[in-house]
Amino acid sequence: MINITINGKVFQVEEGTTIFEAAKQNNILIPHFCYMENVHQIGSCRICVVEVEGGKTLMASCVTPATEGMIVHTNSERVRDVRKVIFELMLSDHPKECLSCWRNQNCELQELGNLIQLNEFRYEGAKSKDVIDSSSPSIVRDSSKCILCRRCVTVCNEIQGVGLMNPHHRGFSTFIGPSEDELLGESVCTNCGQCVLVCPVGALKEKDSTVAVWEALYDKTKTVVVQTAPAVRAALGEVFLYEPGTLVTGKMAAALHQLGFNYVFDTNFAADLTIMEEGSEFLERVKDVLTNKDKKSVLPMITSCSPGWIKFMEHRYAGQLPHLSSCKSPHMMLGALTKSYFAEKMNIDPAKLFVVSVMPCTAKKFEITRPEMFKDGLADVDAVITTRELGRMIKDAGIDFRNLPEGEFDSPLGLSTGAADIFGTTGGVMEAALRTVYELVTGRELPGGTLHIQPLAGLNRIKTASIKIGNPLPEYSFLDGVTVKVAVTSGLRGAAELLDQIKNGTSPYHFIEIMGCPGGCISGGGQPRPVNDAIRTQRMKAIYREDEGKPVRKSHENSDVMLLYRDFLGMPLGHKSHELLHTIYTSRSKN
Amino acid sequence: MGSVYQLKRVDFIFKDEKDWKVILKNSISRPAHELINELISSELKGRGGAGFPTGLKWKLTAEENDLVKYVICNADEGEPGTFKDREILSKVPLKVLTSMAVCGHVIRSNTGYIYLRGEYFFLQKDLNKAISEFEEYCREINFDFSIRIFMGSGAYICGEETALFESMEGKRGEPRNKPPFPSSYGYMGKPTVINNVETLAHTYTIFEYGAKRFYDLGVQYSRGSKLFSVSGDTPKPGIYELELGMSLFDFVEEFGDGDTKAVQVGGASGFLVPRKRFNETTIGFQGKLTGISLPTGGSMMLFNSSRSMYNVLDNYLEFFREESCGQCTPCRVGCQQLLNGIKAVKRGDKNAQYLDKLLRLTETMQNTAKCGLGQSVANSFSAIVENFREEMIY
Ligand SMILES: Cc1cc2nc3c(=O)[nH]c(=O)nc-3n(C[C@H](O)[C@H](O)[C@H](O)COP(=O)(O)O)c2cc1C
Ligand code: SF4
To answer: What was the pLDDT predicted at A591?
Structure first.
């Protein structure tokens, strides 16, 4: 422990603590901007400077370690003066069209203004950038609003390992983005939207789809169907100032009905279906590998629910594509079923159906544009809006969200089990799959009694577990004594680690779950801001609560899914399934 | 009038290097602490601008326990109007190589790099030849030290030591946060001594003649001699080795054209001294006016009365606006808005009081910019605006 004096008071802090953290631990707030806890400390904005006695210049508190006997002033005249000047400089290169900006009142620059309180703009002048890149179906980059905090650079490089967002040029012409003549839509961008999630201002945002959804809602010739992903209900409440981790499933369903959607379905239904298909695919692959060397099946099999991850793989690990499960992501399955099963059942012309997915994800906006996601010229899903966009629509419609009664999902694509709920968090798909696979193979429930596989939960980058199969049912006798090894990762850095093992032939796993965003869908690129580990944990807990509160917690016990197989699909991996629920991948590798 | 120290030319640096083998062999047979003490007692300070005591720098790095350490010679020489490092590397390269190797002996490193300014590619061939000859001798005497040239990328900011490391590591050349300092965390995160070309040439002198010969030159806090690149309105531009501690008055007597109204000491990031201050200004590290963060200190630019100081400042700001690495707000945006500001005043769009607001801005930059570049913009700005205010307005 060391002693540091801040604003006249002596505090003891751990060695290695920055001045900023030391102050925070003792309830002294230092205005800051580019800083992101545990993730991004580059000291580039300089808003958090403080006066350290004996220092020639002021010090950026977020990157300067506290040292024994240091005497710090966070509010001296000198500090407050320069803070104002720096903030004025930031604003001098910013459009200040706040009222028409989508981040209005949810903008960290505005928040800073609330703290710093300017009363004049002394340094007006040149604007450095004006490029708007809307080439991507997922993400729009408006450089005029960028204040070069570089959080997106850190996230894209260090967390996701994609390395697309970078500073270019020098001096006042410096800009952040792909290189000068590279468009997001034509780049290696995975559309994960983690950069959008950390952007403090309106420089990076999802491509808006609310206009298209409003149009469909107003179009009397259309039957508009909406579905919501598991993670949306665990975060949407934050838009309406609920504590992180508040589940708003019922209010969300009610709001969707009020917005005018004709049917409110649940992507969770398709999550259960995914488990049936993916679980069967896994068992088939294992059987091939163990008993029939002629078949070309490969292990480990990797989950395919996360379209950001898929695109990353198509760019970087095209040679390993056969490891990907052929299952479409759940909302694509549900879209395809809406336009076939549901349309047939209700006798609606599929061309008159408009399917909207509410997703925690920006990559799903790209996913629906993939040619494989069309059948006979009709898109499986017509529009994707993020959790944030749904929040905006609810506000725009004047719906009093907090006082809504609880609503429900509609039949026949609305029922789901606890296994589907946990699709929203890292480790959830694997756990859901094992609940079903283990029981299919052995006729018994997962051991332990809770249905959870604890080592697969939480925020660690790579999580692993092994399950030994003993006493299987006769048709799975080839699995007797086999220890099934699984791994789970979220965030593309971890994905690359696991894929490198596969590439080198050193992967010990049979089954791998990969989600493109750290923490999984609960902190996907389309979720409300801010996101940090504390909020991730809250949302994660909410998801597990939802699971544990369900009477049925195993996908193969979803009665509506069973009906669907009986009446329409036949059996998992059957002909109809292949046509509607499975897909193919394309190499995007340049070499 | 003037200081007691008259302008004194010195001839150490370009004195022949024929004894380099002897000096290398003798030096590396001495214990590290002895060499460090020699440097410390010479009071040599870095000639790259920051003026950090060289002996202390070597000592701190020697005290680090890492097995891998580096010696880097900073030959980025990006300051417009300076070319002293180029002269040293083309005339007496073996002095620099020898000093690098001795530094390697002191800090226990067997790897040296020369970060050579991109525009100096033409030096590469001869320099490589010298390196071959040098390394061969090292092998002969069983001394393990190799030197490689790393070609710079052409950005001025890459001369800043931590930006230089980033650049060598294949990243964008941008300054890091300090601390940690290079002595503990430098190139590849390893303890590193980084010295300017000229600094290394002086250490050779010290190893050749002993600390005292060096120490006896100059004045308190500013020992030894220094190379100056003299340019601007002068009848005799060129490179001169002069004893530190001379008064600017004497300097102008020697190099001025009789009509000098101001001298820029230390290039764009240095300090502008108007005529009325020539007398009280000495050249060296002690006076407030030099040595404090003067990148590649050594540029002396004279301006006579025909020069528009507005244009001079406009050029400097233009330079900084382009050369700022673009990382931190005060420097990236500040340089641009200063430039805008003086143009607005000149056009009459803003009144003269606006200059005071701009001075506040430079104060902020000085206090809060991440590296020496942004911090030093205030130096010439305030001197020009305060001393030549009318020229800014009319
Ligand atoms: C913007 C900037 C540019 C610099 N450029 C150079 C340069 O070109 N050459 C140099 O030797 N030092 C340069 N420096 C100083 C170095 O950071 C460093 O202090 C020096 O290389 C240390 O060597 P010394 O102790 O021998 O002076 C620069 C500093 C700054 C802030
Ligand atoms: S002061 Fe200028 S050059 Fe230095 S880090 Fe900041 S922006 Fe880059």
So the answer is: 64
Alpha carbon distances (Å) from A138 to A91, A335, B239, B293: 28, 19, 59, 47
The question of whether A277 is a catalytic residue gets the answer: no
pLDDT digits (tens, 9 = 90+) for B301-327: 999 999 999 999 999 999 999 999 999
Domain map of chain B by residue range? 20-214, 218-304, 309-388
Could you say which architecture CATH assigns to the domain B218-304? Roll (3.10)
Note the pLDDT of residue B2. Answer: 40
**CATH code for the domain defined by A282-326+418-521+549-581:** 3.40.950.10
pLDDT at residue B4 is higher than 70: no
Q: Number of helices (H) and strands (E), helices first, in chain B? A: 15, 11
Of B323, B337, B375, the CB nearest to A171: B323
A260 HSE (CA, 13 A, CB side): 14
Q: Please name every residue paired with A133 in a beta bridge, in sequence order, or none if there are none.
A: A141
Rounded distance between C-alpha atoms, residue A270 and residue A582, angstroms: 13
φ, ψ for residue B161, nearest 5 deg: -55, -45
pLDDT number for residue A334:
97
How much distance in Å is there from the Cα of B163 to the middle of ligand 2? Answer: 10
What are A475's two structure tokens?
Answer: 């048709």
- The CATH number of the structural domain formed by A2-91 is 3.10.20.740
Split at pLDDT 50, 70, 90, the class of A400 is very high
Which amino acid would we find at residue A78?
A: R
* Residue A170: alpha-carbon gap to chain centroid: 32
* Statement: residue B291 has pLDDT above 80: no
Q: Scan residues 103-162 of B and list those with Cβ closer than 8 Å to A.
A: 155, 157
- What are residue B70's DSSP bridge partners? B192
> Reduced to 3 states, what is the DSSP secondary structure of residue A397?
coil
Backbone angles phi, psi at B249, to 5 degrees: -55, -50
Half-sphere exposure of B246 (CA within 13 A, CB side): 22
Name the residue among B157, B361, B367 with its Cβ closest to that of A57: B367
Cα of A112 to nearest chain B Cα, Å: 15
Q: Which two tokens stand for residue B52?
A: 């950090």
CA pair distance A392, B252, nearest whole angstrom: 69
Yes or no, beta carbons of B361 and A85 under 8 Å apart:
yes
d(C-alpha B215, C-alpha A273), whole Å:
84
pTM of this prediction? 0.93
Q: What is the mean pLDDT of residues A102-123?
A: 91
The confidence score (pLDDT) of residue B372 equals: 93
One CATH from 3.40.50.300, 1.10.238.10, 2.40.110.10, 1.20.1440.230 for B309-388? 1.20.1440.230
Answer whether residue A87 shows pLDDT above 80. Answer: yes
Q: Which residues contact A452 (CB under 8 A, 6 or more apart)?
A: A431, A544
Average pLDDT over residues A571-583: 95
> Cα separation of B260 and B256, whole Å?
6
Q: What is the ipTM of this complex?
A: 0.92
* Distance between CA atoms of residues B191 and B104, nearest Å: 12
Fold (topology level) of A128-207? Alpha-Beta Plaits (3.30.70)
Edge-to-edge strand list for the sheet holding A139-142: A132-133, A139-142, A204-206
Per-residue pLDDT at B286 exceeds 90: no
